[in-house]
Specification:
The protein has 2 domains: 16-237, Rossmann fold (3-Layer(aba) Sandwich); 259-328, Tyrosyl-Transfer RNA Synthetase, CATH 1.10.240.10. Helix content is 56%, strand content 6%. The protein has helices spanning 16-43, 65-80, 91-94, 104-118, 134-138, 140-145, 149-154, 156-163, 172-186, 200-217, 259-267, 285-298, 302-309, 313-340, 343-371; strands at residues 53-57, 85-89, 125-129, 192-195, 228-231. The protein has a 3-stranded parallel β-sheet. Helix 2 (65-80) links the parallel strand 1 and strand 2. It binds tryptophan (TRP). The site of tryptophan has 16 residues, from strand 1, helix 9 and strand 4.
């Protein structure tokens, strides 16, 4: 699952020049993100819509600790700064690359539970599923007219997903999902989009669509502002075996896991045979990953934690990690359990968010139709 957490897009592009290009874009986006973060600090409370944030997840399964430290906490932080936040459950995106929708309704409800448990407040944040917002989806038609097929085929994330698809034919929806994402972002005039590095090409596509729409259909008037990426500075977390987190590898700590399940997962984590614990990502990636994980929950640098553990070895390290994660998630998990007992409330939150998103999308679509001369 690609998520809004950072997934580095290494094998995405072929030539060294394009690699260099991607690195330069990423570096520039990092710098711009730092500036944005500061602007939000200074001005969001006064002018919430100016920094309206949209972020989203695909409802493909439970959220894990990586989502928590890289995206959930950040959304709550932005909300609490007074930014107007939209949180999208991208259910149509699940069917870009699979035939079976599976337990999608359950996944959607689980996401809502994690959002609420993490501290998103449905009065201040609009939590919605894009399949429930027809006017949002209709924006895809004018937006597709502003996008070329070549552009879509060049999109590195689309290419990567295609490469991962095991020879499965490319669906029209997978090819065009960057345009759908543009509709997700532009329907509510979001200005800030917290994303991982792999999503930067989509944001560029969105910016191009906004620009072209204004030029081609709105006589240069700014119907859509170009949104900006807000990149997280949280380092990429790996699974407990040091490989990329994946459900099928069983190397993931989910938010909904119990404290005991978490302890068992950490106990089984791969380490190495050096007794002294040091933070050395290049030569000791598994140990480093555990130190990063603990550090993110303790709000401490991994080096300091390593220092503290010293000669305690893997056992002491694992005890620290288990304690950090379980303590850091204790309240989240308690709220989760409460919400699970109240499915009516969860559904109500989603209905309310969907209604608000529909209002917004209908207004935007009305403007779009008007400027396009299609308001009959
Ligand atoms: N593609 C994103 C992911 O895989 C989810 C997503 C859908 C999204 N639409 C979006 C993210 C719009 C940001 C903005 O996680």
């Amino acid at each position: 699952m690609t998520t809004t957490t950072t997934i580095p897009s290494t094998d995405v592009r072929e030539t060294p020049e394009v690699h260099a290009d991607e690195r330069a874009t990423y570096a520039a986006a990092r710098e711009r993100s730092a500036v944005l973060d500061q602007l939000i600090d200074e001005q969001a409370a006064r002018d919430p819509a100016r920094f309206r944030v949209l972020s989203g997840d695909r409802p493909t399964g439970p959220l894990h600790v990586g989502h928590y430290v890289a995206s959930l906490r950040n959304r709550v932080r932005l909300q609490d700064k007074g930014v107007d936040t939209f949180v999208l459950i991208a259910d149509y995106q699940v069917i870009t690359d699979r035939d079976v929708v599976g337990e999608i309704g359950d996944h959607v409800r689980e996401l809502v539970i994690d959002y609420l448990a993490a501290g998103l407040d449905p009065e201040r944040s609009t939590i919605f599923a894009h399949s429930a917002v027809p006017a949002l989806n209709q924006l895809m038609l004018p937006f597709l007219s502003l996008t070329t097929e070549a552009e879509l085929r060049r999109n590195p994330t689309v290419k990567e997903e295609l490469a991962l698809s095991d020879g499965r034919p490319l669906s029209g929806l997978l090819l065009t999902y960057p345009v759908h994402q543009a509709a997700d972002i532009l329907f509510c005039h979001a200005r800030v989009v917290p994303v991982g590095r792999d999503q930067l090409p989509h944001l560029e596509q969105t910016r191009a669509i906004a620009r072209r729409f204004n030029q081609r259909y709105a006589a240069g008037h700014s119907v859509f502002a170009e949104p900006e990426a807000l990149l997280s500075d949280v380092p990429l977390l790996l699974g407990t075996d040091g490989a990329k987190m994946s459900k099928s590898r069983g190397n993931v700590i989910n938010l909904r896991d119990s404290a005991d399940e978490t302890a068992a997962r950490v106990r089984g984590a791969r380490t190495d045979s050096h007794r002294r614990i040091t933070f050395d990502p290049a030569t000791r990636p598994e140990v480093a990953n555990l130190l990063i994980l603990a550090g993110l929950f303790l709000g401490e640098a991994p080096e300091c934690i390593a220092e503290r553990i010293g000669d305690g070895g893997a056992r002491a390290l694992k005890a620290v990690v288990t304690e950090a994660v379980n303590e850091g998630l204790r309240e989240h998990r308690a709220r989760r359990a409460e919400l699970e007992r109240d499915p009516g409330h969860v559904d109500q939150v989603l209905r309310q968010g969907n209604a608000r998103a529909n209002e917004m999308a209908e207004r935007t679509l009305a403007t779009v139709r008007a400027v396009m001369g299609m308001a009959y």
